[in-house]
Each structure stands twice: as C-alpha cells, then as structure tokens.
Write a structure and sequence with these properties.
Number of helices: 10
Structural class: alpha+beta
Distance between the termini: 19 Å
Number of strands: 11
Helix content: 40-55%
Strand content: 15-25%
Length: 312
C-alpha cells in the first residue's frame, strides 16, 4: 500500500512538473539589443506588461494605465537621452498597399516598393503586418540597407522591365533602372511586391523620424485614418526605437512609465520578462511539489502508525 501510494504521488508530481516546464515555461529567443519594438495589443496596462514591471522594479502611475503613444509624442521620444532613431509604420502607405492593392489584385500595376531596415526584418518583423520576409523568397536574399538593391517577383520584372524568360533565369545580380537610379537584383520573391534597400531619407512604408518631414507624415496619415474611420487615428502604429549602446534599459523603462498601455519587445524586455515569468513558474512547481511530498509523508506516517496499531 505504501509503495503504491508513493509511486502514485511521485508520478503525479513528476507529470505536473513536466507539464509546467513544457507548456508553461517561456523559451522565447532573446532578440539583439538596441532596438525597442512598440506595438498595440492590449490597449491598456495589462498582464504582459505587469510581468516586466515587476521584474524591472518599476512603479506605474494608475492614472496612466490607458496612455498610449500618439503622433504628437514622437518628437519628444526622439529627443530622449539614448534614442538614436525612431522609425514609424506608415499606415497611409502600407495599409493602402496591403489591404487595398493586394486584395483587389492590382499588384502588378505598380512596383509597390517596400523598404525595411535589416535589423527589423531579422528580428522584429512579427510585430508588423508587412508582407516582407524570407518566407516569400524563391531564390537569392533580401536587400541590404543603403546598397541600392531590390528583391522582386518575376512578374514585376516582366511587366516593368521587359524581362524575357531567358533573362529571368539569370536575373539575380543583374541591374535595372528605376526613377533614374540603378539597382542590383538581390533576390526573387513570390509576392508581387518590390523590396528595396532601406534608405532613411526615403519612405517606402517605414518612415524614419525627421523634424523637417514629420508634419507632412502626420497630416497624411491622420487624413488617411480619419477617411477610413480608424479607431483613435491619433495613435501611432508600430514604432521601432533604435537606442545607443547601453541605453536600451533606461529608454525602455521610461517608455513603460510614460506609456504603459503600449506593448513592447526588446532584448531587455524579453530577458527580464523571461526571468520573472519563469521564476514564478519555478516557484509554483516548488510549492506544489513540496506540498505533495509533505502530504505523502504525512500519509505514510499515518499508514505506518495504523499498521503498528493493528499488530498490537
């Protein structure tokens, strides 16, 4: 009886521990540092942010629980100590392309240029709905920043650059002229969108903040959002903040305290979040297992006592 009870309890505790580690333990990969991706999900200070705040030892003002980043906040964020660049999702440009052009099947009418910084494409693209990435590649690679490269579909090469079947077989490495500039073809993708090397001075979907061009960017996006009945058009969408070495944590913590309703991803965020969350999982395992072992011990003592009394 004692052996069966011990086997049953230990097995149950092992299964519980295995289940918690397998299904409840955070194994998310920590992204490279010096980039903070900001996106909208909870629209209020929620459980995800609470885990980071606990681990980072921050205090959040309850009056700011619903505060998110509006366009008018961007200049102040860009001027924060430790912030090098701020890149913002261009809703008017990308949504018109993704939701209208794609769905209406008019992709071939234009080149439909999209430019994404390499650092964002490699580790933070999941925070956006941009149809950009290696999963769309048929061969070759994505364009490199500032390299005057494009990754393009065969159909777009045929329509806009008069490529023949023979030319398509050796397209990678060849050059095309567009808007009075020469670009080298770095890859072929299945989607009829032309990916182009990111250039901070040109906006093809991800806009890099500049004081001189920001008002035009905001006005155009607000007009687009209001025309299309966006909820809270004043809020910026996905934002990517590039920080100086050693400044990611201080910038992230300040953003958390000022805009706790936003959602964040960064090296510091994931590191602290994993440590805090997994620590709570381990504590739960230790508590449950300890209670289980203690109860088993009590039951075994009672069983042995009962056996002793029966013999007497």
């Amino acid at each position: 009886m004692s052996a069966l009870l011990t086997f049953t309890v230990v097995t149950a505790l092992l299964l519980f521990t295995f289940s918690q580690i397998t299904n409840g333990y955070c194994t998310e990969t920590i992204p490279p540092g010096n980039i903070i991706a900001i996106y909208q999900a909870d629209h209020t200070y929620g459980d995800l942010n609470a885990v980071y705040v606990k681990g980072a030892g921050l205090d959040i003002d309850p009056q700011k629980y619903d505060r998110m980043i509006s366009y008018e906040d961007i200049p102040r964020i860009a001027s924060m100590d430790g912030v090098e660049n701020v890149i913002i999702y261009d809703t008017g440009y990308l949504d018109a392309l993704i939701y209208k052009t794609v769905r209406e099947g008019r992709l071939l009418d234009k080149l439909n240029l999209i430019a994404v910084p390499e650092a964002i494409a490699q580790d933070y693209l999941n925070q956006t709905v941009i149809p950009y990435g290696t999963e769309y590649l048929e061969e070759g690679r994505l364009p490199r920043d500032g390299a005057h490269e494009i990754t393009i579909s065969r159909k777009l090469l045929e329509k806009h650059f008069a490529y023949t079947d023979e030319m398509l077989t050796r397209a990678i490495g060849s050059k095309v002229n567009y808007d009075n500039e020469t670009y080298t073809i770095a890859g072929i993708n299945s989607y009829d969108i032309c990916y182009i090397s990111f250039d901070a001075k040109r906006n093809y979907g991800l806009y890099q903040y500049e004081a001189d061009t920001f008002n035009e960017f905001v006005t155009r996006n607000l007009d687009y959002k209001k025309t299309n009945d966006y909820f809270h058009p004043e809020y910026a969408n996905e934002i990517f903040i590039f920080t100086a070495d050693g400044s990611e944590k201080s910038v992230l913590d300040r953003l958390f305290q000022e805009y706790p309703a936003e959602n964040y991803i960064s090296s510091e965020y994931v590191s602290v979040w994993k440590k805090t969350f997994n620590g709570s999982v381990l504590r739960k395992i230790i508590v449950i297992d300890s209670i289980g072992i203690a109860l088993l011990g009590i039951l075994l003592v009672l069983l042995n006592k009962r056996k002793t009394e029966e013999k007497v």
